[in-house]
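Query structure, 307 tokens:
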């Protein structure tokens, strides 16, 4: 009987713990996101009550869902580990409905979310006034997926010293952005992606009249690109008047893939011509169905421009 009892105890200990819902907020078990992050286990759901949290968190458990409940949830920091407001160091994490505001660190590379653990999905979230909205490390097995989110006023704070972006994806397997808006990026690029495949669909990437952002989209190492159904606008004070979408400007280190730019609307607010797409890649770009306004050259580099 003793052996049976011991065997059953060992079996129960080996079973995975049941996922829990961890509630965060005033009067809840966890007063702050960081308190929940410290005990979260794989598969848990973290539900954060409305409010502003002067806090940051490092998430180390895989398969987490982190979401807002009952109104706006704003995370303001200061940053964790000199990196970001949320540092996600585990795979398959989903963040829904949160606002990340004001991430800044001494090296100028602070992020609303620093993703360095694998695949991350961000839905219906806002990134306001951070150095980087989202910054990832390199992981060719990982995907960063962004849906229905807003990136407002992100980018570097110190001209000439640092460069930070709305989204900066390292050498991921894929960056996928759907139905999202980038506006008023301060310095450097709205979207910079070193991913092997980048998809940017049905989104808005907009310079403001006073904004000094450089490229709207920067794909510095090449790879596959699908840019479809977006509204893109180049502002009069841009830090780089020559190009809106830059391909291969830091050499084409990624394996070549199809480059399709179709059914977008591009507006140039500069008084002089700019190039919608400039490519330094050997892989030809295909442009078709785009509507261009203002003084614009559709393509410089290898490729074809169709109706």
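Result returned for the query:
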């Amino acid at each position: 009987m003793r052996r049976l009892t011991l065997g059953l105890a060992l079996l129960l200990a080996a079973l995975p713990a049941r996922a829990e819902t961890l509630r965060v907020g005033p009067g809840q078990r966890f007063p702050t996101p960081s308190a929940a992050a410290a005990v979260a286990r794989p598969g848990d759901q973290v539900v954060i009550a409305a409010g502003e949290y002067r806090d940051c968190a490092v998430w180390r458990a895989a398969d987490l869902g982190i979401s807002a409940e009952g109104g706006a949830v704003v995370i303001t920091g200061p940053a964790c580990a000199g990196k970001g407001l949320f540092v996600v160091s585990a795979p398959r994490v989903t963040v829904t409905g949160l606002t990340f505001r004001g991430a800044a660190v001494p090296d100028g590379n602070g992020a609303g979310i620093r993703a360095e653990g694998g695949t991350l999905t961000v839905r219906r979230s806002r990134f306001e006034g951070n150095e980087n909205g989202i910054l990832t490390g390199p992981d060719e097995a990982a995907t960063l997926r962004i849906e229905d989110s807003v990136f407002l006023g992100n980018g570097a704070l110190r001209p000439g010293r640092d460069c930070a972006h709305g989204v900066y994806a390292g050498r991921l397997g894929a960056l996928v952005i759907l139905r999202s808006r980038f506006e008023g990026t301060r310095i450097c690029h709205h979207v910079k992606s070193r991913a092997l495949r980048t998809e940017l669909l049905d989104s808005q990437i907009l310079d403001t009249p006073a904004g000094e952002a450089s490229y709207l989209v920067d794909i510095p190492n090449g790879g596959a690109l699908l840019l479809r159904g977006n509204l893109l606008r180049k502002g009069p004070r841009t830090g780089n008047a020559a190009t809106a979408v830059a391909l291969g400007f830091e050499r084409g280190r990624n394996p070549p893939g199809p480059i399709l730019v179709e059914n977008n609307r591009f507006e140039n607010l500069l008084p002089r011509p700019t190039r919608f797409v400039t490519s330094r890649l050997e892989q030809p770009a295909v442009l078709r169905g785009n509507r261009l306004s203002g003084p614009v050259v559709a393509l410089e580099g290898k490729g074809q421009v169709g109706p």
